[in-house]
Design brief:
With 286 residues, the protein is of the alpha/beta class. It folds into 2 domains: 13-86, Orthogonal Bundle (Chemotaxis Receptor Methyltransferase Cher, domain 1); 98-284, Vaccinia Virus protein VP39 (Rossmann fold), CATH 3.40.50.150. It is built from 10 helices and 10 strands. It has helices spanning 22-36, 45-59, 64-71, 77-86, 98-112, 131-141, 159-167, 180-186, 202-205, 239-252, and strands at 119-125, 149-156, 169-170, 187-190, 197-200, 208-212, 225-230, 253-261, 274-276, 281-284. Helix 6 (131-141) links the parallel strand 1 (119-125) and strand 2 (149-156). The model is unreliable at 5-9 (pLDDT under 50).
């Protein structure tokens, strides 16, 4: 899930390596909003400077004016790096655990009660580095019949985190809060010493598909989903954009399908197509 909270030490303007004018900042937040719908407020100025200055330095640009003239050409490779630099990704395995309890104790028994069901589709929108999608896969793995065609789509705006999620490779500390049983069941150790990593087992990676996707642009999915996770994403959009997205999510859910959002998010006065069933789980009603 994208999260735009980063503690950046307050700097005096004359201590900065590059000058970022008020106009530079305005251009950056307008371009990010136009492209992704993410709303950056004035309190994020230090964060924006910190991240974009890294790209100024990396590209050898002479300053913010020079960098933005090059980066804001959307067909350039640097535009992707520009967007990736602004979007921060924070997630963990089984974050907001009650949502995975809901899948196990409510959604799966309901899905299995349909004797004609042969496939299951779940979308993790704003999947970051993949922990959410793989947590869904682990929850489904022991519960869903092998004969079912089960697929999890994981998407994110940031192409870097999509690539990491697809690899399924994580540092050992990322699985530090998981039980030893889960780690041994669903991860392989690779490397050793300082290069030791864990990788999600191939059986889970085979059911999880990672794709870059901008939620404000066209969605290529043609089929519908039984469940959509979009947690801690819409909080960064303004109300009109949130309303648009909730309506688009409803269009892609089967009747009675579930939309799961973050604990700090709400659908209040934004959609009449869902009913809340508690703990930020919503059911499509129309």
């Amino acid at each position: 899930m994208n999260q735009l909270t980063e503690e950046v030490p307050k700097r005096e303007p004359n201590a900065r390596e590059f000058q970022m004018s008020k106009q530079n900042f305005t251009v950056i937040i307008e371009e990010i909003y136009k492209y992704s719908g993410i709303v950056l407020k004035d309190v994020k100025e230090d964060m924006v400077y910190n991240r974009i200055s890294r790209r100024v330095r990396k590209t050898g640009s002479h300053g913010f004016d020079d960098y933005l003239a090059m980066a804001l050409q959307q067909e350039s490779v640097e535009f992707t790096h520009f967007v990736n630099a602004i979007t921060t990704n924070f997630t963990s395995f089984f974050r907001e655990f009650h949502h995975f309890d809901f899948i196990k104790n409510t959604a799966i028994p309901e899905w299995k009660s349909n004797l004609h069901r042969k496939k299951l589709r779940i979308w993790s929108a704003g999947s970051s580095t993949g922990e959410e999608a793989y947590s869904i896969a682990m929850t489904l793995n022991d519960q869903i019949p092998n004969a079912w065609d089960t697929k999890i789509l994981a998407t994110d705006l940031d192409t870097n985190v999509v690539a990491q999620g697809e690899s399924g490779i994580y540092s050992p500390d990322r699985v530090g809060d998981l039980s030893s049983t889960l780690v041994s069941q669903y991860f392989d150790k690779i490397g050793s010493g300082e290069k030791e990593r864990v990788q999600v087992k191939k059986s889970l990676r085979n059911m999880t598909f990672f794709k870059p996707l901008n939620l404000l642009q066209d969605w290529p999915m043609s089929g519908q989903f039984e469940m959509i996770f979009c947690r801690n994403v819409v909080i960064y959009f303004d109300k009109p954009t949130q309303k648009l997205l909730f309506n688009r999510f409803a269009d892609l859910l089967f009747p009675g399908g579930y939309l799961i959002i973050g604990h700090a998010e709400s659908m209040y006065n934004l959609s009449d197509r869902f009913t809340s069933i508690g703990n930020t789980v919503y059911r499509k009603t129309k």
